[in-house]
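HOLO CASE FILE
Compound: beta-D-glucopyranose
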Amino acid sequence: MSRFGKTLMASAISLAMASCASARADTPQPINASGNAPAVAADTAVPIEKATPAWAHNDPKMNAFIDNLIAQMTLQEKIGQLTLLTSDWESTGPTMRDSYKQDIAAGRVGAIFNAYTAKYTRELQQAAVEGTRLKIPLLFGYDVIHGHRTIFPISLGEAASWDMAAVEKSARVSAEEASAEGIHWTFSPMVDVSRDPRWGRISEGAGEDVYLGSKVAVARVHGYQGTDLAATDTVLATTKHYAAYGAAQAGRDYNTVDISERTLRDVYLPPFKATVDAGVATIMTSFNEYDGIPASGSKYLLTDVLRDQWGFDGFVVTDYTSINEMVPHGYSKDLAQAGEQAINAGVDMDMQGAVFMENLEKSVKEGRVSQATVDRAVRRVLEMKYRLGLFDDPYRYSNEAREKATLYKPEFLEAARDVARKSMVLLKNENNALPLTASAKSIALIGPLGDSKTDMIGSWSAAGDRQTRPITVLQGLKERAPKGTTVAYAKGASYEFADAGKTDGFAEALALASKSDVIIAAMGEKWDMTGEAASRTSLDLPGNQQALLEQLVATGKPVILLLMSGRPNTVGWADQHVAAILEAWYPGTMAGKAVADVLFGDYNPSGKLPMTFPRTVGQVPLYYDQKNTGRPIELGEPGAKYVSRYLNTPNTPLYRFGYGLSYTSFSYSPVTLSAPSMAANGAITASATITNTGKRAGEEVVQLYVRDLVGSVTRPVQELKGFEKIMLKPGESRNVSFTLRPADLAFTRADMSHGWEPGEFQLWIAPSSGAKASTPVTFTVTE
Ligand code: BGC
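Model generated. Tokens follow.
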């Protein structure tokens, strides 16, 4: 069993940005008089923005050191540096080589993952440094995704905070704990935009939006890498999975991706580009194909876009055995050819497939891979080892005293609790059912997630303690409940698919409910129903939870649905019938405390959805920045036939992207613009005054949306272009301003060049997508 509770049979294994969505303000692209971009080749139109992270300055000392080292290396030793193997700890796929320790001693492997603790990494490092001819230290990688030991909310939850300082803090704490356990390198951030909640891996990313996703991605890279890779409390970050993995057809994991190059550039690539600009050290390929070519063999993605257009100068690692998988993809006739295609396309390091290890020497000797290609990849890997300071002291991250002093520091746990409550989204709150008041003397906590430790830390919490550390909701509520208030628990229902139709626990739960003042239904998904290889065709509450929820509502007592899951669920019935809904995701080690903070009102919820919640799975993919179509539903009378709509379901979602309530309320003034138009090198500032009109202090995520009315290609009905999270006391007002430049309005134009186009735009400042709190204002961009 792997740490994700699944086994994978060994037989299963046999792309700027918006081309530069951040096209720079100072390099606007030329436009002709008709408003269309002139026909220029994409390559020349895409500005090359060389990444210049702090560590990437030309370092003559490092270069001399690495030149000297490479000159001494045999081809086999070089290939070793391009090989990453798992230790025999649990992993997400087949362990291809049980003999990794012998491989280390023989210099056949340069990097190890799934091994940590100061002691164990020291032991393995010693084998590499003392056992091999050139004494090249190992690099230790690991999936440190939303915390290492102290687990923070799942990544989608963190994105729901819209609080970049909180996101960065989580990554910072992760890096401190992981590096204290000998880890040099995390396989995070996962920046795959996804519009499909059927896909389990949406829980690992930042949701459906390009802009929010890019900000979150950069915050994570900053948190992990800090400003100095040589500091012993920073780790190399990995942006993954490159690219378009989130567009897997039908939401089925590992499935085919077939999207246009324009969509690739405008939707899926920008977060990758943003992290390259932020200096991310490594990029991980994805399992899927793009335009018929598996990502690990895509020269277009790995060289043309990543290196030549973006100037990335870290190294590229594959995903788990994804070179091997080029054979079943039907792209390579055998592993030898797969390895050649991968390295020639731009892969530097082979994760777990042992393809380079077993085939590359022959490929080089027979001339299908050049020595220079191998040397370039080796150099990129050695540079990172050098930057981490491993050639000075290979054991500098494996320090048991530091490890002991670092893990689970009280301040880390407090940070995890804080980020957890910031991530929660209040979806409904009829008649101020929340926060709980003193009149709720007896609280019935019901549901499979009410007293579960295992589920609280979600998936991809690899080194997280699932059994003892997590604070359950029951514990949290009991500890916080005011004197004289009782909290009693009955599981009542099950989230297991197989339990649908059963009613075993219902009687006990209903008996408890009937003698209580308020019911908290802690329902949702089991922790491993999202994450890798966890796709679903239904987004409903699994098992028999919905049936129990309906019976709880039938008691007439107020029911609060505490929803815990890693994806948007279809909770339309609940939205109609329960008093309040709080989306708590999987909140992490401090789950119960953070839930209690919100339910009792010690913290006023401030999260907003990073993903649209559909009414039914049949609406998927449903996302806020859709196109208008030629027959938008608004054109017809209600119920009109020949418009773009469903016969049986409204087009609108249940809850919009960017939506989330507070225990207070906010009003938005009309928007004012600094000028009615801006020129090529100009800027425009939009402002609105936000007022806390309620009785509690609270935070509001103020969002800026823009619509480009006419383009050389059709444009979305709205795009997020800015946000700011502000804290307001009751009655307090604040003016929030956003400055836009033409480059912020850039996209992939008809001729595939990247840039903006002159014309008319609408803009509004609002509490969520689609909610035009104030009348949109119009501005123009002139040449
Ligand atoms: C996942 C990656 C992960 C890798 C190493 C793969 O199955 O797709 O996200 O980093 O395993 O554990």
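CASE NOTES: The pocket of beta-D-glucopyranose is lined by residues 91-93, 143, 187, 240, 319-320, 532 (CB under 6 Å). The chain has three domains: 79-402, 416-619, 666-781.
CLOSED: yes
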